[in-house]
Specification:
It is a single chain. The chain is of the alpha+beta class. Helices cover 28% and strands 19% of the residues. Strands 4-3-2-1-5-6 form a six-stranded antiparallel beta sheet. It is rod-shaped and about 105 Å long.
Length: 201
């Protein structure tokens, strides 16, 4: 049922008195006659849900858990020789058998993008003379370092920066310029390398 102007005015006046009991009748009448009444509505803010924690460990957590630590009793060269044999077979398959007529540039390009865990490498040049001559199996490759186990069962941490490494497989010798090789193993597959490198010694 529709209300007339008087009923509507009475309803609004009663509503304002209930809503603003401290306001005098004269002020209410002034609002009705001179100003528009705006009834504001405040919506409840939605609570932001907690962000789901990403899967996996942070670098700090990995260090605290010592996930990449090689225990002293496992630091034996002979223990990782089977890994080296697996690596050689992996490279042969990757390079289509390493045939004598294979192009050296093709093999070099494959090796630069290959996984080097299990490869035997030698430091041939270095700004730090104490690194030159270190030979062993790569146990871990990180962005800036190689962890190498030597025949003397010593674990060496060798930085890539300012070092040149050589690796040999089936008579083919490849050189890796560490300063141009500072990537994680997982990042190298999509990286383009220059086949010639330089090092300031």
């Amino acid at each position: 049922q529709l209300q007339g102007p008087e009923e509507a005015k009475a309803f609004v006046s009663a509503f304002l008195k209930r809503s603003m009991p401290r306001m005098k009748d004269e002020a209410i009448q002034d609002m009705l006659t001179r100003k528009a009444v705006v009834l504001e509505h405040y919506s409840k803010k939605k609570k932001k849900g907690k962000k789901k924690k990403r899967k996996g460990f942070t670098a700090k957590e990995r260090r605290e858990l010592r996930l990449f630590e090689i225990e002293p009793e496992q630091r034996r060269y002979a223990l990782f020789l089977p890994l080296h044999e697996l690596w050689k077979q992996y490279i042969r398959d990757l390079c289509y058998g390493l045939k004598p007529d294979a192009q050296p540039q093709m093999i070099q390009g494959k090796l630069l993008k290959a996984d080097l865990h299990g490869a035997i490498v030698t430091v041939t040049k270095s700004k730090c003379p104490s690194y030159v001559g270190i030979t062993g199996i790569i146990l871990q490759e990180m962005k800036h370092i190689f962890k190498i186990i030597t025949k003397e069962d010593k674990l060496k941490v060798v930085p890539k920066l300012n070092n040149v490494f050589s690796l040999e497989i089936d008579g083919f010798i490849s050189y890796i310029y560490g300063s141009k090789f500072q990537f994680r193993a997982s990042e190298r597959s999509a990286k383009k390398f220059k086949l010639k490198g330089t090092i300031d010694l």
